[in-house]
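Case study 2.
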Amino acid sequence: MISEEQFQKELQLIITNAIREDVGDGDHSSLACIPNTAEGKAKLLVKDEGVIAGVEFAKQVFAYVDADLEIDAILKDGDNVKYGDIVFYVKGSSQSILKAERLVLNAMQRMSAIATKTKFFMDLLEGTGTKVLDTRKTTPGIRALEKWAVKIGGGENHRFALYDMIMLKDNHIDFAGGLTKAIEKTRTYLKETNRDLKIIVEARDLDEIKEILKSEGVYRILIDNFNYEDTRKAVDLIGDKCLTESSGGINEKTIRKYAECGVDYISSGALTHSVYNMDLSLKAV
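Prediction:
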């Protein structure tokens, strides 16, 4: 993953662009009927159940819109919630609260859905020692939020983007002329460009596992679209030479069986690309 400094920059970009997109030259609905001096208070109400996520992000949004807004957080990121729970109160300029409302809700609804699904997957793996990873299958423009939500739900982040880790998948390998050539070229590239990036290599069968293991410098092997039996064989072959990761259509019905094969990680694009937003609303009080 990227540094904390870069992560915070990503969040600020998200907020700036979202407010630009949503507010434009002004929230004319509020400007038309609410005086500049009017102050109010609102609560974030849960109308669903699951894991709440995005509380800290909401604080950043409110601060960006109006530094004088006051947040009284009742719950924190990662807390389990049910229908009727109040997550926080926000108090201050009524116009400012309304300006921030949609971004806060959109972000928290999606983040909470992702955190809830991640927690569900993690619970399925309890006792196995296997960890759940996200992927780059995220909503364009808000990847930082979605990966943050995975962490809140108890999962771990895979690479953030194309620039913070090397991942040699089937197309890279084929275009490079084979597994060994792809790894050798990658190691040369990293040395020549003075980059310290971890290398993950995808294997399509057990023979490719054996070939990867002949090369030095591989951080993790991606055991992609293997059945249970071959996954167990792959884990035995790899041993402690590097870390292991299973992927490829793994769902709630199969995830524990793959974990029981002994892999260190299971990656799932479904954590971020197949969720239903948690029902939340911001209500004046």
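Residues 94-124 form the longest helix (31 residues).
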